[in-house]
Design a protein that fits this description.
Elements (H helix, E strand, L loop, with lengths): L1 H18 L1 H29 L6 H26 L4 H9 L1 H67 L5 H17 L6 E2 H19 L3 E8 L6 E2 L5 H11 L7 E10 L2 E9 L14 H14 L4 E7 L3 E9 L4
Parallel strand pairs: 2-4
Antiparallel strand pairs: 1-3, 4-5, 5-7, 6-7
Length: 329
């Protein structure tokens, strides 16, 4: 309504000097009425019937036919409402081709508008669907992670209870903290990096209790981590794999060295662990490889073009180096 009213005012600026206010108002209302008629007929009838099925020739042919039918009707009404002004009446009759072109132009313009509007709606729906699919995929990846950690932690507790160790209560306490974090924090898109590091520390403490002197564990954090945020449980798979391959029957004493360095929004993580030279050299295809595949996928979704992961292997060590930019997460 606002559009048609605005167009009426624009037309009257040019017609009032020629026809006077009253006749100009009537003829311009007729003109706007016919424009609206072909526009809405096109949007609600012709467009759905022909253009939705990509019948372009039929659509524009029908549009031209409607304009041809409306042209003499509009001409008759304009002549009727300008009685007494033979010059203007003759002008309308002689220039019916202009009336036809203006009607066809309005119809074509609404076609272009409708095509563009439908395209924008499709793009918006596509982006919403992609976003929903990504969120579903992230939830699925996280659902694979959480039971994995719980399973390993319960294994640690089980090993100590078999030994009737006095450390079992401490493990239960740390396990409860980890479960609380997974249940109440990890459903969020992002968590404080300090909380993620606290979870990692609990995990490392559990591994220390489990392996005792068989495993040397060093954990170092450099930089101000208090206000920074990160996707939950993103770093844990690297630490978990380091323990899986850092100790076995062929290694008398294994080790895991973990270092986190935060410089501004850039997080650098290094995880180095011992390995047996006789083990297969393909890092991701062994036990636990699904964890690395999942975390790679999560980083591609959450941190596109903002991360670099490198895994280096030597006969006696594995080294994981991850650079992650946490800005605008």
């Amino acid at each position: 309504m606002v559009f048609w009213t605005s167009l009426l005012l624009v037309l009257m600026v040019t017609t009032v000097p020629k026809l006077g206010f009253f006749q100009a108002l009537i003829t311009d209302v007729v003109t706007i009425g016919f424009y609206a008629m072909i526009a809405y007929l096109n949007i609600f009838v012709l467009f759905p019937k022909y253009l939705k099925d990509r019948k372009f020739y039929w659509h524009f042919g029908a549009l031209a036919l409607v304009a041809i039918i409306l042209t003499p009707i509009k001409t008759m009404l304009l002549v009727l409402f300008t009685s007494g002004n033979e010059e203007i009446q003759s002008h309308y009759i002689a220039n019916q081709w202009y009336i036809f072109i203006s009607l066809f132009f309005v119809g074509t313009s609404t076609t272009i508008y409708q095509v563009m509007n439908d395209w924008l709606v499709q793009q918006r729906d596509k982006k919403e669907l992609e976003s929903q699919n990504l969120q579903s995929e992230l939830k699925f990846l996280k659902s694979q992670i959480n039971p994995h950690f719980l399973f390993n932690t319960l294994n640690s507790l089980y090993a100590l209870t078999l030994k009737k160790s006095d450390l079992a209560p401490e493990i239960v306490l740390k396990l409860s903290e980890m479960m609380r974090y997974m249940l109440y924090e990890c459903n969020e898109k992002e968590v404080l990096l300090s909380k993620e590091i606290n979870y990692m520390q609990n995990y490392l403490d559990l591994e220390k209790l489990r392996h005792g002197n068989k495993m040397l564990i060093n954990f170092k954090v450099v930089g101000d981590i208090n206000d920074q945020k990160i996707s939950p449980l993103l770093l844990i798979p690297f630490i978990e794999n380091s323990f899986k391959h850092g100790i076995n029957n062929q290694i008398s004493q294994g080790y895991v060295n973990l270092e986190l360095t935060l410089a501004g929004d850039d997080l650098m993580m290094k995880v180095e662990n011992s390995r047996s030279p006789s083990l297969p050299k393909t890092y991701e295809k062994r036990s636990g490889g699904i964890g690395l595949i999942n975390v790679r996928r999560r980083m591609n979704i959450l941190y596109p073009e903002k991360h670099h992961l490198e895994i280096k292997e030597s006969p006696n060590t594995y080294l994981v180096e991850l650079n992650l930019n946490l800005s605008n997460f």
